[in-house]
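Crotonobetainyl-CoA:carnitine CoA-transferase CaiB-like acyl-CoA transferase
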Amino acid sequence: MGPPSPLTGYAVVDLSSGIAGAYATKLLADGGAGVTKAEPPEGDPLRTWSASGAPIPPDGDGALFSFLAGAKRSVVVDPDDQEALARLDALLAGVDAVVWSRGTPLAEHPSLLPEEILRRHPHLTVTAITPFGLTGPWRDRPATEFTLQAWSGGIVGLGRGAPDRAPVHVGGQVGEWLAGTYAAAATLVSQAAGRGRLVDLSVLEAQVLCLTYYPVTFFELLGRPFRSVRSLFVPGVSTAKDGLVAIGCATAQQWFDLCAMVGHPEWIDPDQPLALMELAAKAAPELYAWVAERTVAEVRELATAFRIPNAPVNQGSTIADDAQFRFRGTFRTNPRDGFTEPGPPYRLHPDVLREPAPAPRLGEHSADLGKTRPRDGDGAAEDARLPLAGLRVLDMTAFWAGPSSTHLLAMLGAEVIHLESTGRPDGTRLIAGVPATEDQWWERSPIFCGLNTNKKSVTVDFRSERGLDVLRGLIADCGVVVENFTPRVLDQVGLDYEAVRAIRPDVIMVRMPGFGLDGPYRDNAAFAYVIEDVSGLTWLTGHPDQNPVEPYSLGDPNAGLHAVTGLLLALEHRRRTGEGMLVEAAMAEAAVNIAAEQVIEHSAYGVELNRVGNRGPVSAPQNLYRTSEPDEFGGNDSWVAIAVATDEQWAALCAAVDRPDWAEDPGLSTVAGRRAAHDALDEALGRWCSTRTGDEVVTALWAAGVPVAKVLQPHRQTELPQLRERGFFETVGHPVGGAASYSTLPFRFSDGTWQAHRSPAPLLGEHNEEVLTRLGLSADEIAALRADGVIGDRPSW
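Structure:
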């Protein structure tokens, strides 16, 4: 028998429905928590859910439910039965946390609303997941995954989709999965802080953070949007002889290497005034022709040799056979129903995650409902400091995935030391398009500023022995080390986990490789889009008659968020045992988890989920419809998102658009009938919207109770009254770039608020003297390091 799991003895009641709450409690159950799912007599709606519409036997459960509910217990509570409610309340008195969302008569019973639960049981962490949050003017407005993506700016966030077609949302219910991961992390943070509270989590705010790339900060600091026109990424997903392959260029060097690879060195012109994407667009026909003449394997072999990011474009039927995932055993067999499912999104060494266990049948544990257990302590700690105050983190990360994880820690109070070097500053300092002629141009990147508030910057070139000595001192000074280099980088300088543990035995080291610390893709370059390609997230995004489109966003922040969750489990393990841990948080395995429905549906039902443009598995009609006004750039690219999720919403839509013929048509009274007539409904709704502004459409439909949204340009997020009311943005000044609005956290704690951004992103090497002095270096030693270029405060080229 192995060591106990980090959350052994931690008890949770799951009062949620839908993916977000189920995934949050799955992550807690994987960590060893005892999760009891309280269900109404008809059961959680996920028990009868299949994204493909595959029939669920009356005595069975949907495969997705079986995946998400593994190792949980199920009790049935009739909300009309006062005795059953009293037994549930007794259960709540003896647990540590509740995860709640709307969606069932049980969860929406007045005695089980989040504020009421916390009033009766102030020791509890009550994590509430709602579309907009529990407060604010939109708190009770209807919404779906699709309309939330539109409000977040995520549908057009990074220019997704060809300009001659409607933009496309990210396929699958990714916002639900992201919100669930945030909910698990927030619950663990609250648990670590040792006091009861309400955690108010907004799915909209989670999507803003994960589907857009600090667009408000970018716009306010530079006076222009990150991107003003939509276009396909080139080469992106391309058609080879035998299938689809993805190739991407995120840097000028990668573009130069691509030109050399395809035999067109004349495309390389460092003085070319066109932007990288414009250069690629001009070359697109020849690039696509080059790929079409080769197999997927041939393209990938060449691209890997040239160190150009590349990946297979996986889908439900292929992903489990992918060479990397097969090597690492990423997928496993569901212990109850036998289909293929992803393993946990991170790996802990030593392995203290719970062994897979079957999902419960409805009400399987109802006989135990009246039994309570004594709680350990009263959870009434008086320390009101920031939740992670006292934690010191060495942040050896760059770009988006790694810095997003350590930024979350910094906003929650950890002291985070961001390690760079003058020869290799964090890459986000270089991607703003700020001319090198501007004073301190490397300090003006809104992306770097958005990702690194509250951190300290230390520059160390650890390729030298003296720099390596300094790095060893930093490791000894920090309880946590986070890095997202390719594995070979730290291995080459002799700083793998065993070496780091030799420096500090109780260290927690979080490694964030793209594909894992071993396997055939181990050393491949991993940018967000590559992770999306290999995991299946790309496959579901785009119009069905075209190649899929890379989301180009969530692969990074999703990885960072899961890394934090793994770290929080490791911190709890260290609190209980005094032992350190290696957290291996591979980006691809985090992405595979939020794309889990594809492999599950294929394995369980033999159905391949495919992209359907802006339609979806839940609502019908659901689509984007062009409105009458020009967009802010003078084009014809203004849209609204409409998603009818229930028959009641359909009746409301019919009345709002004055279509009594629809209301009276029995063929349209069910979602199946509306799905069959989707093309005709799209045409009619498109005509209705085309004569109205986006505001007019939203006013008419939202007032009627229909989920609707304007497709927001992401740099306009501060204009949403819901985000303003909840204080989602804070103004932060910067000594070089100036003041701007910065996004914060997607959850609020009820027992007090704090400023998320307490200091601006650091200047390069700003804290060298402060931190190195704390390590015991003298002023003369620090000056010598500076003179020899080991440390510094400006790029060395």
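Residues 620-706 form a domain with the formyl-coa transferase, domain 3 fold (CATH 3.30.1540.10).
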